[in-house]
Every structure is written in structure tokens, then in C-alpha cells.
Amino acid sequence: MKAKNKKWWIWLIGGIIVIAGIWYFFIKEEQVKIQLETTKPAMGEISNSITATGTVQPVDTVAVGTQVSGIIKNLYVDFNSTVKKGQLLATLDPDLLQYQTEQITANLQNAKSNLAYNEININRQSQLYKVGAISKADYDNAQNQYNVAKAQVNSVKAQLSTANKNLSLTNIYSPIDGTVLNRSVSEGQTVASSFSTPTLFSIAKDLTKMQVRASVDEADIGNIKVGQKATFTVDAFPEETFKGQVSEVRLHPTVSSNVVNYTTIINADNSSLKLKPGMTANITIYTVVLENIMKIPVAAISFKPDSLVAKKYKINSPFAKGKKEGHQQKKNKQNKTNKNGAGIWVISKDSIITHKKIKTGMDNDTEVQVISGLTTNDNIITGYKNLSKKSSGSAAKSPFIPQRSGGGNKNSGGGGGGPR
């Protein structure tokens, strides 16, 4: 009898254990654990901006050419050479122009000799005319020949000045202090300036000062003004941000694929000489900047406590009052709130969640300006994390099985939606 009782107790205890296990692992609802994400209002800067792309260029670039044709005889500078104003850059073969100068010099001597003869002749004819030895026609003819000889001397002198000037132009000098960006010719190459001036060198005036030529879309150009701050990055230094300032908005539009853009000039310091001409820049222009203002994350405005939060925390909500208000009245109230401000939730030291109305200002989709309604000591709720095992789960999930939206890992509130 005792053996039967003992066996019965063993079966009873085993059954209880099995039932308890089934209840614990399959029936028991796991206690939900959540962790609120909070922050405090910060004092700082908030801004609105637009983005654009452009190229880095020197502030002033001079194309050095030649006014005379000829063969490049010597080159004295090359790419990246630093030059001074008046420095000799290149020479053209001067032989042909030298020969022309010598020929015109000889013509000048001939013209002067002819002028001297005609001067003597007019003096002689003048004396003969006074005594009546020659006619008036002979005297006028001598006077005309003298005038022609005098004009011929002046003409040949002008030709000689032109020839000497062309001869001097065979020496190419730098018009500015700067750096040679491009050399377009080589020694022995023939250059012709019959129809247009050929470019021999491109010289940048000062590479320590650069400008970014940004291409701004017509939808954004209305917000751009001279003096606005800008920042940009280049692919060569992706971790470094360069600063600049808008100096000009050019009125001439460019059209590409039916998109109208306007060139906006941004001046930038390049004392480090990291910026090179032609680099592609990714530009941010700050159209509105507010400094020393209170700001909070946009997520704080989107947060609304849901049933999970209500289970763990005490909520002081003004929405609990006046439940009998009509739908239209609530809608009007919400519209007024959206127009004049917003509502956020703060948590006190004793874990009580309270709703606060605030007056907001500028919003850049990440942060929003707070004009009134908060202090820097308020602990604002921006969302919460669900720490429950069933939600977070450590087991690997198959990529082929659809997962529930949100994953239970993070939530910005039962009111729907995280940061905008």
C-alpha cells in the first residue's frame, strides 16, 4: 500500500511539473520590457540649406597668347611653374621680323634722302619764281613733290615703329604673378595669329584663393543671396569640409536636359593648397541660419505614448479629459496646434510622463526650434526600445520569412511614425 501511494505521488508531482512547463514555455504571456529614449533641449544653431554640385576654379586665370606669327624658338617655363609679372616665358624666332625691320630702315633712309633733295629743289624754285624765271605751275609742282617726300618719310617711320613693335612681341612675358596651369605649345611649333590669338599659356593669378562655381537649380536659386555661408567637400579629401561664402549669383542661365540652372560663385580660402583647379565639389549653401536658439529632435514631436508605455508608466495627458468632444472640434484643435506649435512628452524623476505644449519655429526635418514651452532641464521622450525576448530574439531569422514591420526593437510611439 505504501508503494502504491509513493508511485501515485511521483506521478502527481511529475504531472504538475509537466503542466507547469507547458504553461511557462507555451501559455504564459511574457512580461513586456521597454526602455524610453530621452534627450534634453540643447542650445545651439539650426539652419536650412540647399545642396548643389560644382567645380573648383582659380579666382582669376589669364590666357597668354601671341600677337605675331612664327616658330617657338625657346620655352622658359613649364606646367606648374611659378612666374612673376614681366618674366620671360617664351621667344619666337625673330629672324623674319628682323629682316623686315632692316628693309623698312633702308626704305626710311631712301625717303629721307628724297626729302632732302626736294627740300633743296623747292628752295631753288622759290627763288626763281620770285624773279619771274619760272611759272607758277612749275613752282606748285616743286612744292607738291616736297610735301609728298615729307609725307613718305613719316609713313616709313610709322612702318618702322610697327616692325620694331612686332619684333619685340617675339618675346612673350608674363602679365601677372601666378602659376602656369597649362602650356599649349612646344619648341619648334609654328603659331599663326592671322585670325585669332593663339593661347600659349594659362596662368592662375593666386592659387591660395579659389572659387567654386556651383550649379544651382532654378527651384532653389530664389533663396540664394550674396554673403551666405557655404561648405563643400571634394573627392580628394572626403573627410575634410571646406568653408566659403557666396560672392555672386550670375543671371545667365544654363539649360541641360530641360533643367534650368544658374551659376553661383563661392569664394574659398586655399592657403593649404589642397584644392586643385577642376575638382568636383559637393556644396551646401546655408540659406537660413539661427544661432543660440533652443532646439529638439523632430522625433520628439512625432512620439506619442501607446499601450505598452501606458502599462509601465503613469501618464498625465490632457487628452484624457473631454472625451465627449465632437470629431470636428478635435480636428479644429489639432489644426490650431499644428499651426501655432506642437506637443511633446516629458518624463519626470518619479517616472511620470506629462504632455507639454510648445511653440516651435524653424524646422529642418532633423531638428526643430523651440520658441517657448520648455527648459533645458526637461527630459524629452523621443521614442522607446522594446527589450522583450519575443521581440528582440537571439535566434537567427531566415531571410525568406517575412518579418513584422518595426521588428519590435524600436518604436517612436503608438501614435505612429518615427522621425520625419
Automatic annotation (TrEMBL):
Keywords: Coiled coil, Membrane, Transmembrane, Transmembrane helix
Family recorded in the similarity comment: Belongs to the membrane fusion protein (MFP) (TC 8.A.1) family.
Protein name: HlyD family secretion protein
Organism: Chryseobacterium polytrichastri
Segments traversing the membrane: 9-27
Biased composition (Low complexity): 389-398
MF GO annotations: efflux transmembrane transporter activity
Annotated YknX-like beta-barrel domain residues: 210-285
Recorded coiled-coil stretches: 139-166
